[in-house]
Recover the amino acids of this structure.
């Protein structure tokens, strides 16, 4: 299973005028084409994340993909901070399993009032998905702990690698691991690595995540179709990177058993 990817189809679903960035060229990826990519690499399911790029809070493209391929996809929606529990319930019935909070793009202040929404997410047994970088997770840790919401952490929490495990953001991750309510995505290396593929400077952090959370609370993701990537990335090469890191039994946990529990397939 692939736990973080995007569908962008501006021909069928024109981009939102309030989106700051409109993906183009090889960044565009339709549901039909992504279905073929997954088939080629024998990946059965994928978690679609509503992209701020192109669509912001317009989730129609993602919801259409889920409705078209209901046995293939589920989704994480981008929503207003004052979204109600009733609205969440309607989205849940359409295959949405959580809500995205992209502090790395919007800044932590943008989400200072989300605690009621986190409570509603918890009540619906959905996931709060955070994309943070550096030490931003510290801003959300008290709310997460107070609400007891299930948390998905995007892209290894995008740490400042030069600070290692002593970084405050990494220590906040360690706190979340103790609750057993958090799952981390082993993904997005190009977003925080200082090196090109195979992003060797991320190895120590990935080892820390696996050691701290256990593979039962780690999942793999491609981040397809690689929005704003500063160098070419390919699906097969990213899969092979993990095949070289983990044993067959570990890969089964990372890429099948753990995401199956999260996605509810």
């Amino acid at each position: 299973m692939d736990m973080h990817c995007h569908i962008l189809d501006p021909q069928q679903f024109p981009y939102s005028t309030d989106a700051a960035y409109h993906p183009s060229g090889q960044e565009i990826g339709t549901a039909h084409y992504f279905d073929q990519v997954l088939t080629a690499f024998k990946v059965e399911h994928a978690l679609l994340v509503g992209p701020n790029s192109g669509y912001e809070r317009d989730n129609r493209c993602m919801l259409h993909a889920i409705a078209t391929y209901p046995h293939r996809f589920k989704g994480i929606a981008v929503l207003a901070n004052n979204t109600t529990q009733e609205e969440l319930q309607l989205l849940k019935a359409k295959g949405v399993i959580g809500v995205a909070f992209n502090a790395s793009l919007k800044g932590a202040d943008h989400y200072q009032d989300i605690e009621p929404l986190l409570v509603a997410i918890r009540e619906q047994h959905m996931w709060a998905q955070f994309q943070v970088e550096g030490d931003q997770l510290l801003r959300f840790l008290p709310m997460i702990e107070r609400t007891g919401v299930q948390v998905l952490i995007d892209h290894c929490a995008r740490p400042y690698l030069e600070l290692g495990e002593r970084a405050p953001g990494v220590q906040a991750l360690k706190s979340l691991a103790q609750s057993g309510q958090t799952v981390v995505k082993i993904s997005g290396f190009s977003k925080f690595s200082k090196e090109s593929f195979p992003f060797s400077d991320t190895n120590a952090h990935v080892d820390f995540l696996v050691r701290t959370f256990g593979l039962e609370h780690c999942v793999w993701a491609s981040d397809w179709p690689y929005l704003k990537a500063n160098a070419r990335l390919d699906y097969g090469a990213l899969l092979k990177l993990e095949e070289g890191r983990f044993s067959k039994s570990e890969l089964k946990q990372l890429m099948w058993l753990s995401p199956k529990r999260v996605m509810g397939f």
